Amino acid sequence: MIRSLHGVVESTGLHHLVLNVQGVGYLVYMNILRHGYEVGDQLHLHTYLAVRETALDLYGFPTDEELRFFELLMTVPKIGPKSALQILGQADLAILTEAIEAKDATLLHKLSGIGKKTAENIVQFLHDKLETVRVSGGVARTTGEVGDRSHSDAIDALITLGYPPADARAAVRAIATHVDTKDLVKQALRHLSSA
User: Which domain holds residue 36?
Assistant: First the structure.
């Protein structure tokens, strides 16, 4: 089992990179856009080797916490390595943790864009298993991202106004203050118009 790699980014694709480790290039599936890796970057990756009949696929993560959450997501029925990686690309660990702890699939769906049924399965199956994953010595929380109903309502309002769901989520998440829904929508609209 390959559990970690340290090397230089040789090339990048949409969902993978090639990491050169002492002259050997490893193709590693990752959330490239989220982490912004570029050719020439030195990386230390925590890895998971998915063994299938026809392939050995390597998945990489910058932190051990992300790797453990990835493995935890794969315990949910109908979520394999590719789906787990996609979920981690849509929702950061703080959002996943908060939604699972609160048993709030709607919050996870709205703030991350993960499908409603998948969000329900994640919350249902992982609620009792969450203790196995800790972020930086404790559960990660990001002020203003989750746990505040006004954020969820503001996202709904922006979508109703015609903004794409991903843009609406990003604009609301960029505002780190706890304000009521009306003020949050105003701030998010300013953010969207300046983007």
Answer: 4-62
